[in-house]
Amino acid sequence: MAFSDHAPVGTAGFFDISDIQxxxxxxxxxxxxxxxxxxxxSIATIRGNxxxxxxxxxxxxxxxxxxxxxxxxxxxxxxxxxxxxxxGTSNDSSIVFLEFxxxxxxxxxxxxxxxxxxxxxxxxxxxxxxxxxLMAAITSSFVELAGLKDVIHVNVGPASESVTRLAADGxxxxxxxDFMLIDHWSNLYISDLQICEALGLxxxxxxxxxxxxxxxxxxxxxxxxxxxxxxxSTQGLRYETQTPDFVMSRGQV
Length: 253
What we know:
By secondary structure, the protein is α/β, with parallel strands linked by helices. About 45% of the residues lie in helices and about 15% in strands. It has helices at about 15-25, 30-40, 45, 50-60, 70-85, 105-115, 135-145, 160-170, 190-200, 215, 220-225, and strands at about 95-100, 125-130, 150-155, 180, 205-210, 245-250, 250. Strands 3-2-1-4-5 form a five-stranded parallel β-sheet, sandwiched between helices. Strands 6-7 form a two-stranded antiparallel sheet. Strand 2, helix 7 (about 135-145) and strand 3 form a beta-alpha-beta unit. It is globular and about 55 Å long. The N and C termini lie far apart (about 40 Å).
């Protein structure tokens, strides 16, 4: 892909300059986070240390009025406890996690590192899908800083397209998904889950996690999984649901 230095400003094409300006303005808090992390006094100890990076992101969130849309430490710890409970229960040589919505990469860094640490000797692949190129770039920066490039694979674009492409090229094999975290747009929760069903990526025992189903709410998704049937699956898979509730420092989520 080549870019012309002579393209008129504001011309519709690969990028519209007005869209870029809007993205930068709406992501000012996330860009401030990126600057905060990379200019942090403890940057030397953050490098190659996922836990330290996660702690600095939490530190930033506590001290900013706008906050961040991360899963936060309580939900993070809940998911890591699931990793601990599942450790040693499979003879598979690999473990695969799909994340729908990378945002700034807090969950990818924290969960990707924990999944690796709970599965020594296994190939750990954490696929993170993010539609926004800007958020994907921030996530990729943090993944590299944390030393997790061999574990976390950031895919830019609509999750539905990324999943379909990875399944088509064999990167995601049938019945390969151990964990999924759905945390992007609630109106896409069902359709993206059903794509995974139709592609045969799920298997008995796959843990599907969905954030914000109570607040701000994803009632259609909740009703779908509570009915129990994975409607697009050809394997006759069914869902068993739990809805743990969390009260965070900024309210119920």
